Amino acid sequence: QVQLVESGGGLVQAGGSLRLSCAASGRTISRYFMGWFRQAPGKEREFVAQISWNGVTTSYRDSVRGRFTISRDNAKNTVYLQMNSLKPEDTGVYYCASKSSNWDYWGQGTQVTVSS
């Protein structure tokens, strides 16, 4: 059974930073793309960032590029999302996911709230 557990969310003022972590168990993630998604109240879940199995290739949604950085430590079976210069519109529940053919495993999410 694959489990992804996010942590690191919280309440932060606009302009602040948070670092999210996603710890995986039951699957060695080193062979898989990993990603972060978020869902704001009343909105659909949206893609935030993804990283290739070896960390060489990353991609971001336009609104976070230059502020967020996705990284991974395959030895620790963990993926990170460093979020800087946070804005109120970054508020939401952040989920990590792993991808084989599709985004097939998801964590339970961690709440990020950015106050203005």
Short description:
By secondary structure, the chain is mainly β.
What would you say this structure looks like, in words?
The chain is mainly β and 116 residues long. 0% of the residues lie in helices and 54% in strands. The protein has no helices and eleven strands. It has strands at residues 3-7, 10-13, 18-25, 33-39, 46-51, 58-60, 68-73, 78-83, 92-99, 103-106, 110-115. The strands form two sheets. Strands 2, 4, 5, 6, 9, 10 and 11 form a seven-stranded mixed sheet that branches. Strand 7 and strand 8 form a beta hairpin. The radius of gyration is 13 Å and the shape is globular. The protein starts with a strand and ends with a strand. The model has no long low-confidence stretch (mean pLDDT 96).
The best one-word shape is globular
Report the portion of residues in β strands: over 45%
Can you give the helix content as a percent range? under 10%
Kindly state the number of beta strands: 11
Helix and strand succession?
A: EEEEEEEEEEE
Instruction: Please state the structural category.
Output: mainly beta
Main beta-sheet annotation: 7 strands, mixed
Mean pLDDT: 96
Rounded to an integer, what's the Rg over CA atoms? 13 Å
Unreliable runs, pLDDT <50, ≥5 residues? none
Distance between the termini: 40 Å
Separate helix tally? 0
